[in-house]
Design brief:
Blueprint (H helix, E strand, L loop, with lengths): L4 H13 L7 E4 L5 H12 L5 E5 H5 L11 E5 L5 E14 L5 H7 L6 H19 L8 E11 L1 H9 L1
Parallel strand pairs: 1-3
Antiparallel strand pairs: 2-5, 3-4, 4-5
Helix pairs in contact: 4-5
Length: about 160
C-alpha cells in the first residue's frame, strides 16, 4: 500500500508524540474484504488482536523480507484510512498444522480457540489460493507475527490493560 498524506500525518503524530527517531514503517490492511478489515482493526484497537498470520509464499513470491521484531506498521481500515500503529514483537515460521493454542488466542478472532483459528484461516487461505492459483494445505508454511498496539496512545494504554 502507498504511504499517502493521511498515513504520513498519522505516523508523524505518533513519531513526534512518542519521540520515535526516524524509522521506516509498512502500511497494511487486515483481511480480504472491507467487512473483515473493519472487524479486525476494531479487535486490534480493543486490545484483543495481538497477532496475525500470513503465508510464507506471500513474502517469497514477491521477494519481500519477513517482518522483524521492532518493525512498525500503520494499519488502515476498509477506506485506507490510518487507524492504528503496531510494533512487531515476535516472528516465527511454521507449518500451519504446528500453530498452537496460545497463538490462536493472540489472534483474537471468534472464540479464540485453536479449532476456530484453524477453520477460519483454512477458509481464508483457500480463498487466496483460488484467487492466486495455488493450493493451500496443512503443510503450507505461515509467518506468525505477534505485535503490540502503540498508537493511538489512549487505545494502546487501554489495550495493555486487557
Amino acid at each position: 500500500m502507498t504511504q499517502d498524506s493521511d498515513v504520513q500525518r498519522f505516523w508523524s503524530a505518533y513519531a513526534s508524540a512518542e519521540q520515535v527517531p526516524a524509522a521506516s514503517y509498512t502500511v497494511f490492511r487486515f483481511g480480504d474484504s472491507d467487512e473483515l478489515a473493519e472487524k479486525l482493526v476494531r479487535l486490534v484497537l480493543a486490545g484483543k488482536k495481538r497477532a496475525t498470520t500470513s503465508l510464507l509464499r506471500d513474502f517469497t513470491a514477491t521477494h519481500q523480507p519477513l517482518p522483524r521484531p521492532g518493525d512498525f506498521g500503520v494499519v488502515v481500515d476498509a477506506q485506507n484510512e490510518p487507524r492504528c500503529i503496531v510494533r512487531t514483537t515476535e516472528v516465527s515460521v511454521k507449518r500451519i498444522s504446528e500453530v498452537d493454542d496460545a497463538f490462536a488466542q493472540d489472534e483474537g478472532g471468534g472464540d479464540c480457540s485453536l479449532s476456530w483459528w484453524q477453520s477460519s484461516h483454512a477458509r481464508y487461505f483457500r480463498r487466496q489460493g483460488a484467487r492466486e492459483g495455488f493450493v493451500f494445505d496443512d503443510n503450507s508454511q505461515v509467518v506468525l507475527v505477534r505485535f503490540e498496539l502503540v498508537w493511538p496512545r489512549q487505545a494502546a494504554q487501554q489495550a495493555s490493560w486487557v
